[in-house]
Amino acid sequence: MNTSGKGLIIFVKNPILGKVKTRLAKDIGDEQALAAYKLLLQYTHDIAMKTDTSKYLYYSEFISDDDNWSPRDFRKMAQYGDDLGKRMFNAIELSLLENNKVVLIGSDCAEIKKKHIHTAFKQLKTRDVVIGPAEDGGYYLIAVKENSKPLFRDMDWGSSHVLENTIAKIKELGLTYCLIEKLNDVDTLEDWKMHSEDLYNRYGHANDEQE
After folding, report:
1. Which residues of 71-80 are buried (b: 16+ CB within 10 A; e: fewer)?
2. What angle do CA 190, 191, 195 make, to 5 degrees?
3. What is the dihedral of CA 172, 173, 177, 180, to 10 degrees?
4. Which fold has domain 6-210?
5. Is the dihedral of CA 200, 203, 205, 206 positive or negative?
6. What is the pLDDT of residues 109-139, one digit of tens each?
7. pTM of this prediction exceeds 0.85
8. How far is residue 184 from each of residues 131, 146, 154, measured CA to CA in Å?
9. Where do the structural domains in the chain lie, given as residue ranges?
10. Tens of pLDDT along 142-169?
């Protein structure tokens, strides 16, 4: 049982055909995009399991009992809120009731490692907000120790200015922050080509067995 006061929130999409990796699906089709996302889910699961944290898994649509995210290790919940910002805020708010520091990640980054999560928690000792910037102008990780609702308000989450606008809000609020290593999310065919071989070598057999 985690007693570190650290909470790790993982946002995932339910792996439903036609509803995941839609940008990637334009190039490789819905079935291959779904297979790709399942590999990313497995990778994210394994990274999360390496952390000494309380783990909170938030599904996009519904809580699934038929997957490898064991309820012994992950508290399972469904995301709620009108947009991504509200869903993130709500999840962080709940987690901070039980933890002093919270890191939130998605499930689209094949480059995130345990060290990035560890660094985020470490930097929170002296910063109010820690962000892991993504190559596309967003972020793959955000860490806070107090819930700051304005950080998640009025944001165009599909734009390439999410990181820039978030930093501007941090400064407006008079908060301290730092950026950790920039990584690349898997959204496009080019992104997928960078990581597909490694992910298939690690997890492809597991996907085959499930089909």
Report:
1. eeebebeebe
2. 115
3. -70
4. Spore Coat Polysaccharide Biosynthesis Protein SpsA; Chain A (3.90.550)
5. negative
6. 999 999 999 999 999 999 999 999 999 999 9
7. yes
8. 14, 27, 24
9. 6-210
10. 999 987 888 999 899 988 999 999 999 9
